[in-house]
Amino acid sequence: MRDVHVFRDTRREISGARLLSELRESLGDLASSSNSHPPRSLVRDALLRAGELESILTDRGLDGAIEIARLADALADALLAPDCPLPGDLGTATLPIDVPARVLASPPEGFTHYAVHPLDFAELVGRIAIRAAPAVVVGIRTIGATLSAVVAAALRARGIPAPRFTVRPEGHPYDRRVRLGEPAQRWLRAQIARGASFFVVDEGPGQSGSSLLAAAEALVAIGAPRARIALLCTRAVDPATLIAPDAARRFRAFALHATGPSQVAPDEAVIPLPPGAWRKVCFRDRRFFPPIWAQFERRKLLSIDGGRLFKYAGLGRPGAEILERAGALHEAGYGPAVEDAGEGYLVMPWLAGSAPLRPEALTTALLHRLSAYCAFRASAFPSAGQRPGDLESMIRKNALVALGRELGPRVELPLGRPVIADARMMPHEWIAAPGAPPLKMDATDHGDDHLFPGPVDVAWDLAGVIVEWRMSASARRVFLDGYRHASGDRFESRLPAYLYAYTLFRLAWSIAAAATSPPEEAARLRVAEQRYRAVLASLPSPW
């Protein structure tokens, strides 16, 4: 059942001029810093933006990629050596103006979702026994542009010359390939002849590991000895669990070095919370633990005094967008107070004495709060919606794989009120404190992460409320009437399709999560799978 479809294409169209402007703004902030050694966060943000633009320009084969790569290298040197003065012309650096008007760009997943920090890779280089020889760093775009700059800087700090370049693996996600052009091959063969070591740098490996393998095996194909190739990544894996063709044998041919969980955290003393550990605090009875997919939970930390919860939101632009949404939710009275804790984390009060809600807690007052919340999101977080076909493709694939059912020729999900959805409408995501209206937790990032739905019609959230709260017909009427009155949205014709799509996705999610979870968690996920199957069986097919 690994073939269910739960991950979406996160690329979105961005203005090239905007990317260039943001980088110039970051460089200006560095140049105008009153401190001759500016805060590390300013250097880091400028490096992230340079790496993002380097990837885009390199993908397009534009000349400006070389200049931006040099800039990224200078910023990486500064990030690793705060006592090293920044180049004096950073604020007025000549940047390429030949940028595409519009580009499709994906946020680097590690910086966005998984609490990867550039300094993790500098620390990793410090732990590796490296022979005194030239080195070549190969970054896998997109995130590998930034990470390769940091690895190269860390090697230079150890006195090891380390030029770098980046590659873009292509092909099926489970069987990527890297094609090296003739100039790159000539240059690399010269480095091989000099006895260079090679460091392939990326986050992951993911489910397949094929991107790291593709880059390493492209080096082998032009004569690099396997013994001189090392893979630098974020997690150690059992190669037997990877699903690239013959992954176990291929991976074991290379040395692999993993950063492990990031040690970079907010300045306040904190205790890391393992995935799902929050359930032990919130639920007295393990029978009520909601199922999780631990591999994709956002990293969480707890202050030493137990009074503040830190949650990873992301570095750079994605983290700033999540902080903005969290602020809007709090101001409207639907979410907890949230502050920027630095290093990609948000911090909020740990609501001691509060308890997650359960479906049995549904009252008329709570139905009205749920409907008002959906109406608020429809107004506060509008979106352009999914790229055509993405959700429809997910529905077709999952209906075939999970249900054994081939859908008809017209599978449509109309977009009447596109939003950044909450996408986590389960009762346990609402926290009740004595004498206060329930607050919606975990409401800022799931609607725009690497899982479906992505930006979508608000009917996805309406469906989520109905399904997850196990609403009776009468409760559903009260909820939907309240939403209609608060929003003015005539959603009725859209809802049946989204009820089916939402439930089918949650079924597929449960199947995929169970396949990679330990037995106790897999058992919870299988219970959820059966419930979603029962809901689907009760729904008339909209197609």
Radius of gyration: 24 Å
Number of domains: 3
Question: How would you classify the helix and strand content by structural class?
Answer: alpha/beta
Main sheet: strands, sense, barrel? 5 strands, parallel
Report the uncertain regions: none
Major β-sheet strand ordering: 4-3-5-6-7
CATH topology (level 3) name of the largest domain = Aminoglycoside 3'-phosphotransferase, Chain: A, domain 2
Number of strands: 17
**In DSSP terms, counting alpha (H) and pi (I) runs of 4 or more, how many helices?**
17
CATH homologous superfamily grouping of the largest domain:
Aminoglycoside phosphotransferase (APH), C-terminal lobe
Q: Mean pLDDT across all residues, rounded?
A: 93
The percent of residues in helical segments reads: 40-55%
